[in-house]
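Async update (no meeting this week)

Hi team, since we skipped the sync, here's where things stand on the single-chain job. The sequence we agreed to prioritize is pasted below, unchanged from the tracker. I ran it this morning and attached the output directly underneath so nobody has to dig for it. Comments welcome in thread, and please keep replies under the output.
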Amino acid sequence: MASVEAYGLLLSDDMIFSSRITGTAQALGLKVNAVKSAKNLMAQAKERTPTCVIVDLSHPDLRVPELIGELQDVCSPLPRLVAYGSHVDAATLRAARDAGCNIVLPRSAFVEQLSGSLPQWLMPSS
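Output:
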């Protein structure tokens, strides 16, 4: 069985925050590609299965249950799903957790954990 290379996709339309995430990944020797639409995320996931998909829950194009369903159709195994959003939008955070996201964090906790946790989040599932 071939080994799977750690590789992530990020769905965010916030260019500044996206560059912070991809820059952190690069500094750690990891690869995270940022995309601005769910359609582009799915196109890239079809080309190369990511080990992790990170989603900004405030993205206007995001429907978490539909995204997970589409990822299940094109990715084997299903990538780890990490979601972050506003701490004041507890309903959206809970809905992402209920839909099947592995890790759901308020944006502030996501930022705090990014450098230390990104390598683990991108680690291929066993």
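Quick observations from my side:
The mean pLDDT is 93.
Residues 9 and 44 are 8 Å apart (CA to CA).
Reply here if anything looks off.
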